[in-house]
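Researcher: Batch entry, complex prediction.
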Amino acid sequence: MINQYETVFIATPVLSEAQMKEAVEKFRKVITDNNGEVVHEEDWGLKKLAYPIQKKSTGFYHLIEFKSESAFIEKLETQFRRDERVMRFLTFKMDKHSVAYSEKKRRMKKEQNQKEA
Amino acid sequence: MAQNNSEIRYLTPLAVEVKKKKYCRFLKNRIKYVDYKDAQFLKRFLNEQGKILPRRLTGTSLKYHRKVAQAVKRARHLALLPYVTDLMK
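Model: Structure tokens for the complex:
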């Protein structure tokens, strides 16, 4: 069963820009190696947390939208748990409304960029 | 005496409450999905302490109130919204 998922994870702020890229690259590879297809990616950058996690008040947020087998999610989450760089993660199964919502959001952003350019 | 009854006068005009009808903003604007990543929007459904406001105050329909509640809880997990706080707004 192929579903569309969305995963947001928070990496520790102690990482450097390059290390963060490497971490993202690793999870992207985990997805593509398991017959997943990355649909969209968003880097929210360093954000302030609403409450401290592991005694840290900021974190790097990264969002990946992808299509994959439902059985793969368990593997991905184990990878998240094993990785010390990841402080928090959330995987969300998208239904047709959320897919439509994110597509609309992306389209609007694109149009806005075109207007500015 | 009976005449006076029909001419009751008040010093201040009686406050007749005009209730503004509450409505569900999701049904009205045809929003089908509540985004947990949009913390700014979800804050409308929270009180100062970061608690979820009841349906009787927000006017949201049951179907979407459940979705709002779920989205708020997801946002809390991702530290986009606080679990507890004082004077959030």
